[in-house]
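User: Can you help me understand a structure? I only have the sequence.
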Amino acid sequence: MMKKLIYIFPVLLFSLAAIFGCDDMNAIHEKYLQGETIYAGKLNMLSTQTGFNRIRIEGSTEYLGNSVKATVKYEGQEQVFDVATDDDYVQMVVENLEERDYEFEIYTEDEAGNKSIKQLCTGSAVGDKFIENQLPRSMVEFVFDQLDLSLRWAEVSDAEYISRTEVTYENNSGTTSSVTVLPGETITKLEDWKPAGEISYQSFVKAGANGFEEAALEAETMTLPDLPPVQLDKSLHALVNMPTDNRGDQYGARPWDYLFDGDDSWRNSDQYGYHSGGNSLPSYFTIDLGVTAQLRKCAMGLRDPNNYNGNNPTHIEIWGIDDITGAETPDKSEEQFIEKGWKLIYKGDVDGKYNQKLDFEIDSEEDVRYIRFKTVTAVNNDGVQYTELTFWGKNVQTVAE
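Assistant: Let's start by predicting it. Here is the structure, written out as tokens:
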């Protein structure tokens, strides 16, 4: 009897332990026994791009599954966006943000209300302060190539967020033309531009290095340059030889052959240019330019001062007229010139004592075809020599044969 009790007692203890042990295990696994937790598909590879008072969040739909909406939470606020797998990427723009950094909590949901795991990402928004600190693209200068006009721009190193610059200018048709300048461009040619017309340019900046949109900076407005003077065609020039002109053919000089031949060097012979002869100053000669123009510049070739500078000019005058009919003057006086219709378009000193080549600017609005080139004084104040004359002008007009 005793032996039987000894065997029964351990069996009872084991049974009781098994009963109470199952209750503890059920408690541990209770949450799993209630059914499995289902997670919705999520967005992958989340990233952010900076905007002006907003941020764009982008994610891949690779693992989106059946999710149909995404919730973006930040600082007690949230925005909900529709999402779908129709595109490879989803873009969500969070609006009305202050100019600073943000952290976002993002999760997606399917139609059954199942949610994805939560994800975090950070981004930045910029605004007025950012724009105020941006420099526009700098236009350095206007560049002429004959009558073609271009704009030269500064490098964008001082304006790193510039995305483009829009240029608008007046054209010769009475309207405006526009051209877009990209950051890598430093020269912009203007087509059909109107001389002295208005031009404006406006730069646009991205919202930082990671910006997804751009904003306009304040526009700059200025006046286009006028047309530059052009060199007059020397093949149209001719000496007129009016009655009181000094023909300039002394000492074998041949100005009709060499004064406008394009070679301003002194070639060790008096024949290559104009020579007034001795005891002739003041004197003048008349040139038919072959066109009408407003003179802007003159260049002179002279005798080499290292050889002889006595006949190089020191003070000259240039008089002009459109028509020489009845413009002959009986003497060299200024009063006679004016009476006959000649207009003084230049008067000044030149340094022929030390220079073989000289040029000077002319500021005249007179449209002239004929000019009297008058030498008032020279180094030795005796005679004068010129090896070449070149003229530049504006408003150049051809003349009828």
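Now, to help you interpret it: The radius of gyration is 45 Å. Residues 1-34 have pLDDT under 50 and may be disordered. Let me know which part you'd like to focus on.
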